[in-house]
Every structure is written in structure tokens, then in C-alpha cells.
Amino acid sequence: MSGFAIDPCEKCEELLQSFLDRDLSEEERAVAEEHLDGCDYCRKRYRFEAELRRFVRQAVTEPMPLELKLKLAELRTPLI
Amino acid sequence: MGETAPETEARKLAEDARDRVRFEEEALELADQVYRVARRLVSSREEAEDLMQETYARAFRSWKSYQPGTNLRAWLLRILTNLNIDRGRRVQRAPDMQPLEEGDYFLYNKLEESTQAPNPDEERVLERLSQDDAVSALSAVPHDFRDAIVLVDIGDFSYNDAAQILDIPVGTVMSRLHRGRRILKRELAERALVDGDDVE
Questions:
Q1: What is the number of domains present in chain A?
Q2: By the CB < 8 Å criterion, does B138 face chain A?
Q3: How distant is the Cα of A32 from the closest Cα of chain B, in angstroms?
Q4: Interface touch A72/B17, C-beta < 8 Å
Q5: Of the CATH numbers 3.20.20.140, 3.40.1390.10, 1.10.10.10, 1.10.10.60, which one belongs to the domain with range B106-199?
């Protein structure tokens, strides 16, 4: 018997974030993996979510301006 | 032969100075990572730079309250978050409790619909999003939810660290994170679909 009671894809959608966060119980994880093995629809959406997280992280990352780095270094306590 | 009182005092001062210099160096080495988070907790680069300077000034003043061996990056972010709230830059608002109809597949489904190719792969679908879409969508997420996303997904903090930094229960971090990511995806979908309309 499948671990999903009603719509398996809907249940799989609910587990998506926790799955990628590695925050599922072993049992839930096994249920999700079993479904993903046989469901191209959900597998695509899981892969997309993982890629999306990487994309957003890179897209919103701005390097620290060099001048700021120098200003922070100047805040150090003088040695004497 | 034991040390005289002045010698003991001098040795203590020297040890203190050495520990302080080490602390300051370690904190500065983390500045890039702290800035990456700070930049997305506030809305402008100027605010982020001011906040970084205030944070480091305070951290260097109160370095003795840091417990060596604990997470220094989280300690710095805790200071930064408190300063951000104290200075009233961050207008506290009630969390967005409107029902959110969209589930986690919403963005993919919307983007896939708008892709010309039949049954596109996920890389092709992701190409519908631009860097500007990501920046603007993240800034449109309400503060409480955005804080959780920025700390966990951008800053790589654990749920527990994020809970300590924000001074909220771990369960609240998790629920804000889950809801926040869905709000972010809704915002991304809106932007990507508008961009697509412009092209047509």
C-alpha cells in the first residue's frame, strides 16, 4: 500500500520544502522517494525547486564594497 | 619565583590585547558573509553599509560578551538584527496572514504554461526568471518572512541559529520559512509573467 492516502502528487507537493531541507522523518522521506521514483511530474518540480534555491541565492548576492571592508577594519581597537 | 602584582597585571593586559586582536580578525574575516545577509535584510545598499558599521563598532566594543567556540557569525547577525529593529529602520508589521492559495508547484506550473516549448525541462523553465526578478521578488516578501528566508536560504544558517538570531521559536522560523518561500514564488511568478507579456 502506498503511503499516500489520496492524491499522491498533492501530498508530494506538501513534502517538497521539508524534503529539500532534509527535515523529514525517515518514513516520510521513504514515502516521498518512492513516489518520486515513479512520477516524472513531481520529480521535475523537485529538481526545479532545488535549482531555484541556488538561482535565487546567487541572484541576490552582492559582494561587499571594498570601501566598507576598509571602514570596518578601521573600527578595530588601536593597539596602543 | 612568583610574579609581582604589577607583572600579573601586565600579563593580563597582554593576554586581553591578544584575545581582542584575534576576535577582531575573526569577525572581519566573516564580514563578507555577514554583509551578504545584511544586504537583503534591508532595502538599500546604504542602509546595509550603515548597519554593518554599527554592528562591527558594537561587536568590537562588547567583544568580551562573545563566548569563544560558539558561532561568531550568528553572534554578529544577532547584533545586526537587534540594531536594525532598535533603530526603527525596520517597520514591524503583523505577519501576512492572508490565506495563500498557491502551493509549492505554483511557480513551476505558471512558468511551464508560459514556455513555448512543449514539455520543457526544468532548466528551460528556470530561464524564464531573471536576476532582477529575484532581487525584486525577494524585497517584496514581508519582513518577517523575508528574514527567515534570508538567514536560512541566503545565509546558510540552521533553523536553530535563525531562531536565536531573530529571538523567536524554531517552529516559528520553520513556518515563516515555508510560507515565505511560497510568497517569494508567487512574487517571482508575477514578475516573470509580466516580463513574458512584454516580449510578446
A1: 1
A2: yes
A3: 15
A4: no
A5: 1.10.10.10
